Amino acid sequence: MYRLMVVEDENMIRKGIVNSILWKSLGFVVVAESSNGKAALEQLEKVQVDVLLTDIKMPVMGGMELARIARQRYPDIEIIILSGFAEFEYARQAINFRTFDYLVKPVNKQKLLDTFTSLKENMDRKREIKEEIYHSNIYLNAGYETLRNEFLQSMLDGDISLFNDFEEKTASLELDFTGHYFAAATIKFDRKSIFEELESNWGTDKRLLTFAYRNIINEELCDIDDVYYIVEDCDRINFVFCFPSKEKQDELMVPCLESISDSIHNCLFKHVAVPYTIGIGLSYPSIHHIAKSFSQAKKSIQNNFYLGEYRVQVYQDNNESKYEQNFIRFYPEEMEHAAIAISNGNYEDTRKYLVSMFRTLSEQNLLPEIVKNYCVALKLMVQSKIMNSNGAMEEIIGDEFNEFVKEALTVKELSAYIINIMVTLAKAIDETIAPMEIKEQQILIDRAKAYISTCLSEKITLKMISEHVYLSETYFSFLFKKVTGITYIDYIQKLRMQEAKRLLVNTNHKVYKIAEMIGYSDYKYFSVQFKKYVALTPKEYRNQGRREKEQQER
């Protein structure tokens, strides 16, 4: 959604513009109104605005002066002039200020709609170009590893925008978040001691020290799957852990962190004793909560810094700890099923899963706050799967969702609201993909499959595939899942694993080379995915496959 400010001194006209247009359906949301240019400039300092729709003749400061100053201060802002003055001079000035359009009052409503439709298309193109330039620069200048680290650190820092098209982003970065227990941790070395060590042994070059960190951590993690780390600075290393079970977490997490810390200390710090503390946050059933776990990990260090021999500090003894532990004790799997059903427009399954979810939650007799938190989590899960779906979610769920959930008095009231609104959303999504005949859908998906099969050695993106079949990215993603029953990401992985199996048995290529040949940059990530898919390591599969092949040839 692009953010719009309306500036018009006549209150009736201004309210008419704001209230008579379905702005969200056009891709805009009105975030500010003003009656003159001076007041508008004051608001612009406080509110982020993408588009300025302003009248010309207003008291205190007119629209032309407002446009001139706004253009100087906010070069990227789009400006549309709305005025009853049709003289050429005003139009000429508007062009000088790079206004998008100049509309003469009384403006035809359809003309206004057409103008903003055209404006959104123009702004979307600019945004796409900027994103392409940004990502190209990152890949070219910073490298693949840096891109992954920035993504992970931004996720830990709470950037929720990363969860838009999350599967696409993590697949392209070869990150796997398919576990059931997600926790963040951080190792904090004493900064003063680190600087003393740098001066005495590393020539004050932090890059050499952090490079040495990475070598040690990579070696320590070679046999542990689904652990990611970021060397934030020479005195801090952050971790994201993804475990399939609580037992696996209890078995591996603390020993892993202690082993890494001890290895770094014993191998690298030769001249100065460098104290360190390990902070661990609570585990959550969704990667969406990893920023909260990371915040807890940092708090655990701040609250318990270097207490005697207790180097490992697990977040606890806090008023919210009991609530958090209750929250993660049980996590209804129906939530994920419901989110997938909604994203595919399957409203019958949506109702079935949500009815089952609320029945299960009621049987658990959980605190009302926990049940409400699950409802908000469901919204986030749905949002991450259907973002950019023609504004359907914004129109149907709206801004009152969180408030209603918060104020609900009974689980019956809450469940009726959630089921109704999510089923409505699923129906709306279903309508967006209904017009195409099944045969035509299958032809498009077959064309996409053929294209994918020719690009397995490349970094295949959703944009590449959707452009090949002339569909929007969101629509193609929905359509592929609807026709095939699996996501396009799972389909690509299936093809790659089948090709990997063939290459392992029939060629002598090293495993890392095979990983490269089928489109994986990270050899370890490939090995982890292969083991999940086949239940054997690449080496084990190669040995077994060749033995079976030899027996068949005898």
UniProtKB/TrEMBL annotation:
Residues 3-120 form the Response regulatory domain. Pfam families: HTH_18, Response_reg. Keywords: Cytoplasm, DNA-binding, Phosphoprotein, Transcription, Transcription regulation, Two-component regulatory system. The lineage of its organism: Bacteria, Bacillati, Bacillota, Clostridia, Lachnospirales. This is Stage 0 sporulation protein A homolog. It comes from Kineothrix alysoides. GO terms for biological process: phosphorelay signal transduction system. SUPFAM superfamilies: CheY-like, Homeodomain-like. May play the central regulatory role in sporulation. It may be an element of the effector pathway responsible for the activation of sporulation genes in response to nutritional stress. Spo0A may act in concert with spo0H (a sigma factor) to control the expression of some genes that are critical to the sporulation process.
